[in-house]
Amino acid sequence: MKRIGILTAGGDTPALNATILGAVRSANEAHVEVVGLLNGFASFFQARAPHVILNPLFQAIPQLDPTRGGTILGSSRTYVNDEDQTLLQLIAKRIESLQLDGLICIGGDGTLNGLQPICDMVPTVLAPKTIDNDLGLNFIGEADQWVKDSQNEGEEYRKDPHPTGLDENFEIQKMINYATPGYATAVYEVAEGVRRVRTTAESHHRVAVIEVMGRHSGYLALGSSYGQPDMVLIPEYQFNIEEVAERVRQIYRHQQHAVIVCGEGIVGDDGREYGATSGSTDPSGNVLLTGAAANLAESLLESIGEDFFLSSGHFQSAKSAFFTRKVGHTQRGGRPLQFDRFYASQLGGNATEMLLDGENNSVSTLQWDPESGFTVDRHDASLFRDKFGEIHARTIHPTFYNSSLLQISEQGRQYLHPIFAGAIGAEDTEFIRQSLFDFGNLYHGYKSVNVEIAKLTRYLET
Ligand code: F6P
């Protein structure tokens, strides 16, 4: 193997550059050239396939800084449609012209779905990333739980609770891909946000509803528990609005304020998707989720009743008892924490080794068990596919959530602890201390890496 390609696809995460650097370092040792494809699969869609050589003379380019958030290669949600034969032929031709002997795609479940047709052109492996922490399996065989129901002439996926009984012996150390790079940093942002919102809600006797990302997976909402919210609503548990309202009343009576975290994909027991009001989808078909917190606040006010808040004497209008905060894209951006940097680079290095070992269509995974701690491993992509060939986002295991308390469960705490116990390195806090209020920041504008990458960009001859 002389030359491999690497690309970052889907929504960005904080530790992508660390993954790329890990892959490049392993390639340097094996004297393999690494070509960075720009903007994910979109590079292959262009006749001249914009790319950058990431290790001239087998040394990583200086722009590849593992502490830098985002991705120096750029990312997009462009995916390869395996039914478009003309496009597939063009992509195959471009891969040949780039002289790639292998390809590493850094991405999540959408990317794993999209790389399947490329595996027929060149050996391809996935290095995982996603703040949603939804690439993986709670246990081997979980993908087999997906079944299709025929409804109104269409077909809808449904997860059959225990058709095989395979998850009866669920153990966190048997999870496939325990955590994905990017998740820890995003949780840091969320938990910090909850703590900041708390004191203002407390001072003004208000109810704060905080919306976090994660689509239909509740890992980010679960991780927010480190910020000690009073209540956490996850997309996996279909809550009853009257029960949630009653819980808010109890909490409010006790402490005169409340802090609620909700995942953007929360669903009520009447089937209402609180964040799916826009009805639009992204290029890979994911429903765009927004507005869950605002809709939840509105419904809670309706159920609790205006009098409850007006009689407290704190408000002139009951509506002002609520405020919402969407943590938003700060969850995805910025400098990765030590946990993410370290394991992202290990997973990237492992991906290169997988290609060197002749693997194709497989995933570099992060495993955890109490004896060995975190270790990297590899798993065949077919393990993640259901019987129809689809890959589904991992949802949190039901035992991680206590639906009576609307809070994390003991098993959930045990799951999070190994990831977060040492997630923040001393240099992470030192970096904030030294860099944020650097006097120089007031004099110099931000220097984008995109400008430097543009200077290094090469194109295929057409
Ligand atoms: O998949 C990652 C993610 O951050 C989701 O949690 C979120 O719903 C989505 O991306 C947001 O995407 P966009 O940046 O396109 O708004």
Question: Can you tell me about this structure?
Answer:
- By secondary structure, the chain is of the alpha/beta class.
- The chain has helices at 16-29, 42-45, 85-97, 109-114, 116-119, 183-203, 219-223, 241-255, 292-304, 306-310, 338-356, 410-420, 426-435, 449-456, and strands spanning 3-8, 33-37, 51-53, 102-107, 124-128, 146-151, 154-159, 207-212, 231-233, 258-263, 322-326, 362-369, 373-380, 401-402, 407-408.
- The chain starts with a strand and ends in a 6-residue tail after the last helix.
- The structure holds 6-O-phosphono-beta-D-fructofuranose (F6P).
- Residues 11, 130-132, 213-215, 264, 282, 289, 332 line the site of 6-O-phosphono-beta-D-fructofuranose.
- 6-O-phosphono-beta-D-fructofuranose is lined by residues 11, 130-132, 213-215, 264, 282, 289, 332.
Please outline the helices and strands.
Blueprint: E1 3-8, H1 16-29, E2 33-37, H2 42-45, E3 51-53, H3 85-97, E4 102-107, H4 109-114, H5 116-119, E5 124-128, E6 146-151, E7 154-159, H6 183-203, E8 207-212, H7 219-223, E9 231-233, H8 241-255, E10 258-263, H9 292-304, H10 306-310, E11 322-326, H11 338-356, E12 362-369, E13 373-380, E14 401-402, E15 407-408, H12 410-420, H13 426-435, H14 449-456
Parallel strand pairs: 1-2, 1-4, 4-5, 5-12, 8-10, 8-11, 9-10
Antiparallel strand pairs: 2-3, 6-7, 12-13, 14-15
The protein binds 6-O-phosphono-beta-D-fructofuranose.
The distinct ligands, each listed once, are: 6-O-phosphono-beta-D-fructofuranose
In terms of DSSP E residues, the strand content is 15-25%
Distance between the termini: 25 Å
Taking the sheet with the most strands, its summary is: 7 strands, mixed
Number of H/I helices: 14
Counting helices, strands and paired strands, the structural category is: alpha/beta
Uncertain spans: none
The percentage helix is 25-40%
| Spatial order of strands in the largest sheet | 3-2-1-4-5-12-13
Pattern of helices and strands: EHEHEHEHHEEEHEHEHEHHEHEEEEHHH
